[in-house]
Amino acid sequence: MLALLRHCPIVSMPLARAVRPPPRSHVRPCFTALAYAPGAKSDSQVLLGLSKKNLQQIAMDFGQESYRAKQLHHFIYQRKVREIQDFTLLPLGFRNALQEAGWKVGRSPIFQTVTAADGTIKLLLKLEDNRLIETVGIPVMVDGCVTRLTACVSSQVGCPLRCSFCATGKGGFSRNLKAHEIVEQVLAIEEVFNCRVTNVVFMGMGEPMLNLKAVLEAHHCLNKDVQIGQRMITISTVGVPNTIQKLASHKLQSTLAVSLHAPNQKLRETIVPSAKSYPLDALMADCRDYFRKTSRRVSFEYALLAGINDSVHHAAELAKLLHDSGSGYHVNLIPFNPIEGSEFQRPSKRAVLAFVGALESSKITVSVRQTRGLDANAACGQLRNKFQRTPLVADPFDLAVTC
Ligand code: SF4
């Protein structure tokens, strides 16, 4: 996520208020796995996202042997079957009973795919409420074979934060994604590429920390059921007050990526308006705490915007900020990927190299993100905006951090 925060005009309230947790009586406990309540009825009962244990309970509720749960699990997560009727190893009576009880797999149709010359494929999934979300598969090929496949997943339908250079922010916000709607993005990418996803980054549409409960549930499912190692998963944030500490308390072995984009508070506030609610020193203290609790280094994302934050002076200031904040950091530079109507420009190659040199000479570990899929509307939100231009409406209560 190229994440720069700004005030949210949709909900017309400061971010600190927008993300304030709901009253205590409404705070539900934080689950690490999706819950299945035996006998519970809901509008749609979705199998995707459930653990083997939950599936076992369902099988038993329907009078089936417990080994049927393994078969369900296999069909959902390994074979990626979309319809219950196609769970061919299961007895027809069981399949019919599941459907009659309102169960479904919970996979959304792929509405559109766009393939870039470098093999990056962007998918639009059409959710049950007809909203479109983007997800991107980014392969690394060696001798014609995919050696690494990264899924860049969305966590919200749109995004309320409206970062000025982000197409998703310009498209507005509708709602948080449910955990299974996050998991299904990974399965859709595996289906399209016909190979396993090796890495997942929460850098698609939305701010994951504003939907932390579902993100944690999806993380759990991706790790335990889809079998992607925790260390292969990155959760990205522009910084939402109090959420990095919450994430740290789960002691995940995943990478936290913080979108910094400026080496000082004053400049950051102009690029990341919500920084007013979450000063840089507080953000850095939370990052230090994350490293202390998880022993996982924090990656700082820094979008290089020509003439704004890309000088060697900014690099020197960034190096000082990181040295003053301790160790365990890595900087990931992202030369800005221009979007339609943006006032920002991509920095020259020379400016990028000078920035890298200045960081390296101060002994900061740095990498430059290769721009992938430029010809496939790959910047977050661009493709979705092509097909869904109607403004999305935010319900401020959806923005409450619920974990
Ligand atoms: S998805 Fe949201 S938080 Fe991320 S860059 Fe876009 S507007 Fe900012």
Could you give the order of the helices and strands?
Answer: HEHHHEEEEEEHEHEHEHEHHEHEHEH
The percent of residues in helical segments reads 25-40%
CATH class of the largest domain: Alpha Beta
The value of Rg in angstroms is: 21 Å
Major sheet attributes: 10 strands, mixed
Number of separate helices: 13
Strand content: 15-25%
Walk me through the structure:
Keywords: 4Fe-4S, Cytoplasm, Iron, Iron-sulfur, Metal-binding, Methyltransferase, rRNA processing, S-adenosyl-L-methionine, Transferase, tRNA processing. This is Radical SAM core domain-containing protein. Helix 2 packs across helix 3 (67-78), helix 6 crosses helix 7 and helix 8 packs parallel to helix 10. The longest helix is centred in the middle third of the chain and has 15 residues, at 179-193. Strand 9, helix 7 and strand 10 form a beta-alpha-beta unit. 48% of the residues are buried. The strands form 3 sheets. The protein has a 10-stranded mixed β-sheet. Strands 1-2 form a two-stranded parallel ribbon. The two termini are 21 Å apart. The chain folds into 2 domains: 45-104, DNA polymerase, domain 1, CATH 1.10.150.530; 107-397, Alpha-Beta Barrel (TIM Barrel). Residues 1-33, 38-43 and 390-403 have low confidence and may be disordered. By secondary structure, it is an alpha/beta fold. The chain is 32% helix and 18% strand. The protein contains 13 helices and 14 strands. Iron/sulfur cluster binds next to helix 5.
